[in-house]
């Protein structure tokens, strides 16, 4: 098989890149290791910056997002039994965010690709990227029980945090920066209307909790738990009790309970791979960087990477200039490190350290109070949360 751009992975990064390239008339093929059902049912985050919504609209993939996405005008911070509204439009000159689950974006893009192209192969795991330094890199992969080869002009690894594309970077070429946090998130989906209109980020007595939502009848909630936590140690009653305690405020508010339909534990970590390009191999999305979910930046970073790539390929094939592609890594990493910093700060401000002393907790409260008392401090949070401009 031969194509112009070989894409490994059908998460949001790979699917959106394929859609953008297809619309620009650039050939590509997507190889996905898992089944369609698997990728369409993986539970992930769902907070979209305006730039992410715009990108999906521009490529004709936002019909359901526009009908079903929930526009949010801010978030709520809770601490010390108080609630504080952070008003995004007021603080940012009109910006909002949209709640629409990543799984739904994946379903929308898969349906479009299967109907209109480019080729998207499921159950086609890539084994290795070879000759990235040459003019015709290739991807070895398995499909229908046979090992095959995809020869390409370029390869893009959109294969997430456990992918294989990164392995084709020689050890001396790159560097990976990592930070493991001493806690994980226990996430649940519940068939119950959200108990709030906005996302609630809480620094409660036992640590962090987040109230998010998927629709007017489905809630998504998270709890900080110790690393290594087994979800079976958290029966439903215990989850609701702990959430109730962490969200508790003085005043009238109640956490509605309902049947829990999914429960899982995810470690919280930061990772950045530098550079994001080696020869004719590019990395995009989780394959290149992971951020803690506290800032809701993972999906948005993946989308901004592939927007830069799609413009770079369009420039190359339209004008012959590889200038934008040559700046890909540098352009993306500026934004990636800003998101890494923001996610780190949010995480450290809202989570209990395992060996926390009273001094540290007081500092967290002082940081939270600064944000709720000072307009510039709140504006800084709002600017980062709603998304920094795409530097092109
Ligand atoms: N061959 C083919 N496909 C692979 C391989 C492989 N060797 N390894 C991994 N994949 C596939 C995975 O099965 C998955 O479908 O690559 C895809 C990667 O998708 P995601 O993990 O969703 O990563 P990405 O597209 O970068 O999405 C960005 O935003 O909210 C965050 O972390 C969250 O996944 C999310 C991310
Ligand atoms: C989610 O809706 O799953 C979600 C929202 C915001 C976050 C993390 C997760 O910061």
Q: Care to describe what's here?
A:
- The chain is an alpha+beta fold and 392 residues long.
- It has two domains: 5-72 and 100-178 and 269-349, FAD/NAD(P)-binding domain (3-Layer(bba) Sandwich); 181-268 and 355-386, D-Amino Acid Oxidase, subunit A, domain 2 (D-Amino Acid Oxidase, Chain A, domain 2, 2-Layer Sandwich).
- It has helices spanning 12-23, 36-41, 50-58, 63-68, 88-92, 102-116, 236-247, 298-319, 323-326, 328-350, 358-373, 375-386; strands at 5-8, 28-31, 47-48, 70-72, 74-79, 82-87, 97-99, 120-121, 126-130, 138-143, 146-151, 154-157, 175-190, 199-204, 207-213, 219-225, 260-274, 277-278, 281-283, 289-290.
- The relative contact order is 0.17.
- It binds adenosine-5-diphosphoribose (APR) and P-hydroxybenzoic acid.
- P-hydroxybenzoic acid (PHB) binds next to strand 15.
């Amino acid at each position: 098989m031969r194509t112009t751009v070989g894409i490994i992975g059908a998460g949001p990064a790979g699917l959106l890149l394929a859609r953008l390239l297809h619309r620009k008339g650039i050939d590509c093929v997507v190889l996905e290791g898992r089944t369609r059902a698997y990728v369409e049912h993986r539970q992930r985050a769902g907070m979209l910056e305006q730039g992410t919504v715009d990108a999906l609209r521009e490529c004709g993939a936002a019909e359901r997002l526009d009908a079903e996405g929930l526009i949010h005008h801010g978030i709520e911070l809770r601490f010390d039994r108080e609630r504080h509204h952070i008003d995004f439009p007021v603080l940012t000159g009109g910006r909002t965010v949209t709640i629409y689950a990543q799984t739904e974006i994946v379903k929308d893009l898969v349906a479009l690709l299967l109907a209109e192209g480019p080729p998207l192969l499921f159950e086609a795991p890539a084994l290795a990227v070879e000759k990235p330094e040459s003019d015709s890199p290739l991807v070895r992969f398995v499909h229908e029980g046979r090992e095959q080869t995809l020869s390409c002009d370029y390869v893009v690894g959109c294969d997430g945090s456990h992918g294989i594309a990164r392995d084709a970077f020689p050890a001396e070429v790159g560097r990976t920066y990592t930070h493991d946090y001493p806690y994980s998130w226990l996430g649940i989906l519940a068939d119950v209307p959200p108990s709030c209109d906005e996302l609630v980020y809480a620094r409660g007595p036992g640590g962090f909790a987040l109230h998010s939502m998927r629709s007017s009848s489905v809630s998504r909630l998270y709890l900080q738990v110790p690393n290594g936590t087994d979800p079976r140690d958290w029966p439903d009653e215990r989850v609701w009790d702990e959430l109730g305690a962490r969200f508790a405020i003085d005043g009238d508010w109640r956490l509605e309970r309902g049947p829990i339909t999914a429960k899982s534990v995810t470690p919280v970590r930061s990772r950045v791979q530098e550079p994001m390009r080696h020869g004719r191999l590019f990395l995009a999305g989780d394959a290149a960087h992971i951020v803690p979910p506290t800032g809701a930046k993972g999906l948005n970073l993946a989308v901004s990477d592939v927007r830069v790539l799609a413009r770079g390929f369009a420039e190359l094939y339209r004008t012959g200039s590889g200038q934008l592609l040559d700046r890909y890594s540098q352009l993306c990493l500026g934004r990636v490190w800003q998101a890494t910093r923001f996610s780190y700060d949010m995480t450290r401000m809202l989570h209990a350290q395992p060996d926390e002393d009273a001094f540290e907790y007081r500092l967290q409260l002082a940081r939270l109070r600064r944000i709720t008392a000072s307009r510039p401090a709140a504006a800084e949070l709002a600017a980062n949360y709603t998304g920094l401009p795409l530097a092109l």
